[in-house]
Design brief:
Organism: Shewanella intestini
InterPro entries: Thioredoxin-like_sf
Strand order of the largest sheet: 2-1-3-4
Structural class: alpha+beta
Distance between the termini: 10 Å
Number of strands: 4
Keywords: Isomerase
CATH superfamily: Glutaredoxin
Protein name: Protein-disulfide isomerase
Strand content: 5-15%
CATH architecture: 3-Layer(aba) Sandwich
Oligomer: single chain
Shape: globular
Order of helices and strands: EHEHHHHHHEEH
Largest sheet: 4 strands, mixed
GO molecular function: isomerase activity
């Protein structure tokens, strides 16, 4: 059966950062599975998740948060350019790099304190993965690719009955499994056995 994973996230959300290792574990366990990373562009420069949410995500996941990120945890965040960048990457010939790129972006933001809000901020990741994005993605408004991703998210959220994020859904053939990622933040690898049991129950 064909399997696919859908991860609704925001690159500047600490809970999305905490959930990404769960996505990594599933990708490692199912290397032929299509992984769809859907950036919801929640943060547009008006607010942030804040220090309290960051501390809770850190406690739940044991992931590192760097000094510079902690220092500015309550400052407004803007993820529009990353949403554009990831939307562009998803549509291109190097879509298979999406998850590795997301991991690198999250490390840059949450560990190294990179705000990821300018072309220069993104340049190290772009160069490391030998990517050549259009200059259009560095505008201060959502690109057409990013807008299409939001349309896809809207359809999935309607199916889920909630607009909360991060969110993880695995599809197996015509069946959908909604994954409660919060159960696996401290031990991401545990999601693999849980999904094997869920898939076996579908047969």
């Amino acid at each position: 059966m064909t399997t696919a994973l859908y991860f609704i996230y925001d690159s500047h959300c600490p809970w999305s950062y905490a959930a990404t290792p769960v996505v990594n574990a599933l990708q490692d366990a199912y290397p032929n599975m299509t992984v769809n990373l859907l950036h919801c562009a929640h943060f547009i420069g008006k607010d942030s998740a804040g220090e309290t949410q960051m501390n809770e995500a850190a406690k739940a996941s044991a992931l590192p948060f760097g000094r510079e990120h902690i220092r500015y945890a309550n400052s407004p965040k803007n993820s529009i350019k990353v949403a554009n960048f990831m939307g562009w990457l998803q549509q291109g010939k190097q879509a298979n790099k999406q998850l590795a790129v997301l991991n690198a972006l999250q490390k840059a933001h949450f560990v190294e304190g990179n705000p990821l809000n300018t072309k220069r901020d993104l340049s190290l990741v772009v160069e490391a993965f030998k990517l050549s994005p259009s200059n259009k993605i560095f505008k201060d408004e959502l690109s057409l690719d990013a807008e299409r991703v939001l349309d896809d998210i809207g359809e999935i959220q309607q199916l889920m009955g909630t607009n909360k994020f991060p969110a993880l859904i695995m599809t197996v053939g015509d069946d959908a499994i909604f994954i409660d990622h919060s159960q696996y933040l401290s031990r991401p690898q545990d999601v693999v056995e849980a999904m094997k049991a869920e898939i076996a129950a579908l047969k």
